[in-house]
Amino acid sequence: MKLDLILQNIAKHIQLDEKEIDYFTSLLTQKTIKRKGFLLKEGEICGYESFINSGCLRTYSIDNKGVEHIVMFAVEDWWTGDLYSFLTQTPASFTIDALEDTEVLQISKANLEKLYYDVPGFERFFRIMLQNAFIAQQQRINQTLAFTAEERYLHFIHKFPQLEQRIPQKQVAAYLGITPEFLSMLRKKLAGR
Amino acid sequence: MKLDLILQNIAKHIQLDEKEIDYFTSLLTQKTIKRKGFLLKEGEICGYESFINSGCLRTYSIDNKGVEHIVMFAVEDWWTGDLYSFLTQTPASFTIDALEDTEVLQISKANLEKLYYDVPGFERFFRIMLQNAFIAQQQRINQTLAFTAEERYLHFIHKFPQLEQRIPQKQVAAYLGITPEFLSMLRKKLAGR
DNA sequence: GATGAAAAATAAAGTAGTTTAAGAAATTAT
DNA sequence: ATAATTTCTTAAACTACTTTATTTTTCATC
């Protein structure tokens, strides 16, 4: 099991002794998702929060016209899952699938609750993870309200320079909230400068 | 100091003894903001997270044309603040002001850190608060991506039925990401049904 | 209760982004 | 390598929403 990334990330925020690390590790299960494979489908109950070792996942909804809308990307060193479905054990409203072959470490709800109880430091760790996620989302909401599609695209490639090379452009469009056709047009316009 | 609301909210998630409640209380300061008064201005450093006892605050940005974009409303029983500015002690990118006379209880960064240290149960409380906030924001992001302005407006009045009566329509428009003129048009269209 | 200021309504003209459709390019599978 | 599928590009017609300007209504304050 490849634990380096997640343990490094944890070590940035809380201090654990070897026993606690081993205990945490014992609560995780590993999963591999092939490209285009699913981590979670809308309507299913989200059994796990997943930490990403490698690859790229996207969380999205599908509207009544069949169009996909990407709420978030998750890449190495980050976590994902339908948190509402996970916490309430109700059907998920988002689907999560893989844009690349992806390897995750998962923790179930029961095990996460045990972990909070047995190693309270993890309350702190997840509190900090959630703070970061909250801030990132708040900035994203502001982006969608205050900026044009062109500005949002420029901000995207600036903020996630590596990601644009790794995923199809239509996924970037689905994240920006525009059509692939319009993104193509924007790129053409921006290239001629 | 009116503590009912916040203490009730805390009691839903963690158990505190009287001593801990008193200690928590001792770390809070009360503040009253008149309607149109400011809790925080863009560029200032956010010194406090605020729990709302009564009233209504809005967190917004102002674009280069002077247009306001509302990232969130905060009403009774909720909290607000520019979390990024608060955590990093760097200039805020959002402004927070009052749409009604508002009463808040505030905690400073130093006191919150003390609180986490002295009463670890608060790690859990804030973790849960952040989970709820994260979920609400994720749903909001999905709304703005997947729905038209009309659908978003209908969802808004359904989800916050009381709020529409309390605040000017132009603030609802700034939250939905449309102009007040277009919201007015939508309302006229919807009324004639 | 009058007065001034802010908010809401209306309408016409304009634009950012969508839709549709068809072909070219790139990627994946055989 | 070739075929099949998916992705990207281009362009014209279209629409959801904006902009600008004017009028009416509501609200706060003296």
Please, could you describe this protein's structure?
The structure is a homodimer of 193-residue chains. Helices cover 49% and strands 22% of the residues of chain A. With 193 residues, chain A is an alpha+beta fold. Chain A has two domains: 4-141, Jelly Rolls (Sandwich); 147-193. In chain A, a hairpin with a 5-residue loop joins strand 4 and strand 5 (68-75). Chain A is globular and about 60 Å long. At the A-B interface, strand 5, helix 3 and helix 5 of A face strand 5, helix 3 and helix 5 of B. Chain A binds a DNA duplex (30 and 30 nucleotides) through residues 148-150, 168-170, 178-185, 187-188.
CATH architecture of the largest domain in chain A: Sandwich
Summing up helix and strand content along with how strands pair, one would put the structural category of chain A as alpha+beta
For this structure, the CATH topology of the largest domain in chain A is: Jelly Rolls
Shape of chain A: globular
- The number of distinct helices of chain A, counting runs of at least 4 residues, comes to 9
How many separate domains of chain A? 2
Largest interface: A-B, 34 and 34 residues
| The CATH homologous superfamily of the largest domain in chain A | Jelly Rolls
Q: Which quaternary structure do these chains form? A: homodimer
Side by side, the strands of the main sheet of chain A go: 1-8-3-6
For the CA atoms, what is the radius of gyration of chain A? Answer: 18 Å
Task: Summarize the main sheet of chain A.
Answer: 4 strands, antiparallel
CATH class of the largest domain in chain A, named Mainly Beta
Distance between the termini of chain A: 47 Å
Order of helices and strands of chain A: HHEEEEEEHEEHHHHHH
The tally of beta strands of chain A, per DSSP, is 8
Helical coverage of chain A, percent range: 40-55%
